[in-house]
Design a protein that fits this description.
The complex is a heterotrimer of chains A (about 325), B (about 160) and C (about 350). Chain A is of the alpha/beta class. In chain A, about 35% of the residues lie in helices and about 15% in strands. In chain A, α8 crosses α10. In chain C, α6 packs antiparallel against α9, α6 packs across α11 and α7 crosses α9. Chain C is globular. The chains are: A alpha/beta (about 325), B alpha/beta (about 160), C alpha+beta (about 350).
């Protein structure tokens, strides 16, 4: 049985006891998937998995508090589930986790850059193990998976779901590399260059909050301090400084909690590379607290605890 | 560094009520001379300081931000400064990726009796900020700055990681 | 009037206009294309892809300063400074769906009783030099909402790509004035080529979907929250759809206190947000995302057309579909309401 068929039969077995199971289906064109809420066996026919199933479905979990639901997770998504459990934001008893062993997902931006014409003109997509054969505006292009793999997959250390009731597929190898050249290049820039970079990218931010709402760890939902008038953290003025202030709120509220699923960056309609901030913050969290969010069910987020003697914080002499 | 010699810069200080605020007072009572660039905001505990206060200050045009609380183990509320230490350390380490010069932010511990230490901290920090000069404005200050920025962005800047 | 302009000269036109206009044009920055304030030295990016955000900001900027307040430290009364938009604007390289967006604003912001001077002044002083589309994207449906890939409505000049330049047709006197510039040459028989191209693009869009039953069928589902909850299940309540949209005209007004200088600003608001209808008492009539999605779809395809002679408050640009982080398709929602049976 294929991985998809195994998954379908596993969901079928449990569907009766669940409000719904969240998976993916084909979206508005052959190049895009969209979340699917499976309530009946008929819905199950539409289920897909694979490189187009990019969404982290853990984002929906907190909305179903008190209801028993199922969710399909990739390795990275499972980290978000663990983090939500560790923070007592969802209950394990109410959740049936269908874990996948994942071969990685695509980056729509990389596809866009690699295609001979705008992916909006897509006519057909043929998915194979090596990559995607895409027909766009009458031209067919073969894109290798290695070229269009999302950045997070290039350094993925947890391709197999870390928590699951049913684990589907055979264990995949984690990526050999743990660093991204583009990240290192950016970090090596001068302060002035980085400053100008954020000024420019923030001048095109429209503060639609797609980054926030796509984030599985942004659990304040309708009560985010960014939209509160009292206290007023951020003005409605969409100047670069106010937009950046919002991004700082997002980064700081995720410090030690971010599972690096990349949803913020994927969701951004104006292509702001938000993961530059996330990855850097996570690296600091790793350095100071030896903590990687969502990898262990017994973790406490590092900013919710402390040590009297911090081995890795060097008190600066004054 | 008397104010009349050079243009004053805007340095924001978040000081714990139970220690550093008293320390600054002790320094004043002791007639220790101090630079006058620092604007003090008194807070009940360094644990009250959300790192976003510091980010907000920097984005609003502060040239430097100084946080000072009680020495570890001396917190009036037993553990506020332990939490603060973790948060502030993380912010300090995070700032470089934003392009804000991390030297513009510092955190330290000064007790109520350490007037001399307060004088040293505030003098040194102010000296450092003066060496760095006024902070750049995140919002371009004029139409011309905007244009320069937009032009720079539109001229072949490639987007990191999206390649 | 019909003329021809080469690609090189179009850039020159943008540069010349930029001398005494605020020119908005699609420009690539990083890996995205958005409308930016154009200035000499920039490269127009008209064809690589449709700009991520619509050209709405041309007539309705995301932040509009309504007035400034200046105070000094004396007891003097604060000074109020009016900031009605000054100067002329040009939007180059928008698509027909971009140019049409403002038409949906008109019956709301320019009525007998209520005149929104900020919008109307920009509307009056903005020239649209629009580019006809030569191929529909999977998300395009302008032909189903009374428009098309070469619809000149709302544009002053319509450009059609022919060979190494564009056939330019003036739709208004303001457009004609621009075509008189020496950068334009006679179109000759290129006009016929342009017609053929436009006809082909329209043909590629296929049969339009008939939305005429949408107002009534959506209204019939008004109290059916099960329907809306199913439609909104995957919505994450962000504002991407609303902010991308050429026709979404809702705004928020807030005061920014900046010490001795304050400003009252008007900013884009979005009905997907919980705070959009949050009342002072704490009560929220649209407390869930299902309520909010119902409003967005209902407003565009039912309430608005009911008030304004059946015109849908949608240009069919498809940005809300392709920029939605979870791929919600507004066409499917309307269709589901139209095809609903007990």
């Amino acid at each position: 049985m294929s991985q998809l068929d195994t998954l379908k039969s596993a969901i079928k077995d449990r569907l009766g006891e669940l409000e719904c199971v969240i998976g993916w289906e084909q979206g508005y064109d052959p190049l895009h998937a969209t979340p699917l809420f499976i309530r009946t066996e008929a819905d199950l026919d539409r289920l897909i998995i694979g490189p187009l199933a990019v969404h982290n479905l853990a984002t929906y979990l907190t909305a179903y508090k008190g209801k028993k639901i199922g969710v399909v997770v990739k390795g990275c998504d499972s980290r978000s589930v663990i983090e939500l459990l560790n923070e007592n934001l969802i209950s394990r008893d109410d959740l049936v986790i269908f874990g996948l062993c994942c071969d990685g997902v695509v980056s729509q931006r990389k596809i866009r850059a690699a295609l001979p014409a705008d992916p909006g003109f897509v006519e057909a997509v043929d998915i194979s193990a090596n990559g995607l054969k895409i027909t766009v505006a009458g031209q067919t292009a073969m894109l290798n998976m290695t070229d269009i793999l999302a950045d997070k997959c290039r350094t993925c250390q947890h391709p197999n779901a870390l928590i699951s009731d049913v684990l589907i597929g055979e264990n995949r190898q984690s990526a050999s590399s743990t660093s991204l050249a583009c990240q290192e290049e950016f970090e090596a820039k001068s302060d002035a260059e980085k400053f100008a970079f954020w000024q420019e990218t923030m001048s095109r931010c429209i503060r639609c909050y797609a980054c926030r709402n796509a984030c599985p760890m942004c659990v304040c939902r309708d009560y985010c301090i960014a939209t509160s008038r009292d206290p007023l953290w951020v003005s409605q003025d969409n100047s670069p400084a106010e937009n950046f202030m919002f991004q700082m709120i997002h980064v700081s509220h995720l410090a030690g909690r971010c599972t690096e699923c990349g949803e913020c960056e994927r969701a951004c309609p104006v292509d702001i590379p938000l993961m530059l901030l996330r990855r850097f913050m996570n690296k600091q969290v790793q350095d100071v607290f030896e903590h990687q969010a969502g990898t262990d069910l017994e973790q406490t987020p590092p900013l919710l605890t402390f040590k009297v003697e911090e081995e890795r914080i060097n008190e600066r002499g004054w | 560094m008397p104010a009349q010699d050079v243009r004053e810069l805007r340095i924001v200080g978040f000081l714990c009520n139970w220690c550093s605020y008293g320390g600054a007072d002790t320094a004043g009572v002791g007639r220790f001379s101090q630079p006058t660039d620092l604007r003090i905001i008194r807070v009940p505990c360094s644990g009250r300081i959300d790192p976003l206060f510091i980010v907000r200050a920097l984005l609003n045009g502060a040239d430097g931000v100084l946080v000072s609380g009680c020495h570890p183990r001396d917190c009036h509320y037993a553990e506020g400064n332990f939490y603060a230490r973790r948060r502030l350390e993380l912010l300090k380490r995070f700032l470089p990726v934003t392009g804000f010069d991390a030297r513009r932010f510092e955190y330290t511990w000064v007790s109520a009796s350490e007037g001399q230490r307060w004088q040293h901290v505030v003098t040194e920090f102010t000296r450092r900020i003066h060496e760095l000069g006024p902070a750049p404005n995140f919002n371009p200050a004029s139409e011309m700055d905007w244009n320069a920025l937009a032009l720079h962005a539109a001229q072949g800047q490639t987007c990191p990681c999206h390649g | 009037m019909e003329k021809f302009i080469t690609t090189t000269n179009l850039t020159r036109l943008a540069e010349e206009l930029a001398a005494n206009h605020r020119v908005l044009a699609p420009v690539a920055t990083g890996c995205t294309v958005t409308f930016r304030r154009f200035q000499p030295g920039m490269t127009l990016d008209l064809h690589s892809r449709m700009a991520a955000v619509s050209a709405k900001a041309g007539t309705f900027p995301q932040t509009e300063t309504l007035f400034l307040v200046k105070r000094d430290t004396t007891e003097k009364k604060p000074e109020l400074i009016e900031t009605l938009p000054q100067g002329k604007n040009v939007v180059i390289g928008g698509r027909p769906c971009d140019a049409r967006g403002k038409l949906m604003f008109d019956p709301v912001y320019g009525t007998e009783k209520i005149k929104d001077l900020y919008f109307l002044q920009r509307r009056e002083n903005t020239i649209f030099i629009t580019l006809a589309c030569d191929r529909p994207e999977t998300t395009c449906f302008c032909h189903s909402v009374g428009s098309g890939p070469a619809d000149p409505t709302g544009s002053d000049i319509l450009l059609t790509l022919v060979g190494d330049g564009y056939v330019a047709r003036a739709m208004t006197p303001a457009g004609e004035d621009i075509l008189k510039l020496s950068l334009f040459t006679e179109a000759g028989d290129k006009g016929k080529e342009a017609d053929a191209k436009n006809a082909k693009a329209r043909e590629m869009m296929g049969q339009p979907h008939d939305y005429s039953s949408a107002p009534a069928t959506i209204l019939a589902r008004f109290d059916d929250m099960d329907f809306w909850q199913a439609q909104a299940a995957k919505c994450i309540s962000c504002g991407a759809c609303t902010y991308m949209c050429p026709t979404c005209y809702c705004f928020n007004i807030t005061d920014d206190d900046l010490g001795l200088n304050s400003q009252r600003i008007r900013t884009w608001d979005n009905c997907m947000s919980h705070t959009f209808t949050l009342e002072g008492s704490g009560h929220n009539p649209r407390s869930t995302k299902a309520h909010r999605l119902k409003n967005r779809v209902g407003h565009k395809f039912s309430y608005y057309p009911d008030l304004h002679q059946g015109v849908m408050a949608c240009c069919g640009c498809g940005r809300c579909i392709k920029q939605c982080p979870v791929g919600i398709d507004i066409r499917q929602i309307v269709k589901a309401a139209q095809e609903y049976s007990e």
